[in-house]
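Hi support team,

I'm filing this because I wasn't sure whether my run with coenzyme A finished correctly. The job status page said complete, but I'd like someone to confirm that the output block is well-formed before I use it downstream. Pasting the exact inputs I used:
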Amino acid sequence: MKIQPVIKENALIPRVFNALREEFGISQVNEADVKVALDNDLYDVVAFDDYQPVGMARLVGDGKLAFYIKDVYVLRSYQGKGIGGLLIKRLIDYYDLNHGETSYLGLMSTCGSETFYEHLGFEKRPNQRLGSGMILIEK
Ligand SMILES: CC(C)(COP(=O)(O)OP(=O)(O)OC[C@H]1O[C@@H](n2cnc3c(N)ncnc32)[C@H](O)[C@@H]1OP(=O)(O)O)[C@@H](O)C(=O)NCCC(=O)NCCS
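And here is everything the job wrote out:
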């Protein structure tokens, strides 16, 4: 069943960032680094159910031409209720209001989440027009 969470804009803080990642076994990031990252993102959204943070998503980029979605997490017990879609739609609204003439909104999907993003209008790459996404991860 869908629920209507309260969505707060630019309310993400390091403690919540790490708490929402923890459930997925993603490494915790020291709070000083997270603070710098959050201070420098373009926009973020946090979903609350009864004051409890249950999901987040953020947007990074140059604010005009290149925008990337990052750190999309919804707590397992809240998945499938429309929250992830709601969060991404808020990021798309921000993008629509702020992007320039030849801009794009990109993301790197986790394995298995591609369909989630396709439902929201994103296309998978590589395809006939676009090459692969590439990544260099600090080891
Ligand atoms: C991916 C994630 C954010 C989706 O959040 P959610 O709140 O469960 O998504 P929603 O309930 O808004 O689902 C929206 C639609 O996508 C579909 N969907 C959701 N997750 C899906 C998945 N993993 N695979 C295929 N379809 C999916 C839903 O069925 C729904 O379809 P509908 O609109 O036809 O009903 C959530 O599963 C999650 O946090 N996963 C773990 C972290 C992760 O991998 N994040 C992605 C980082 S790129």
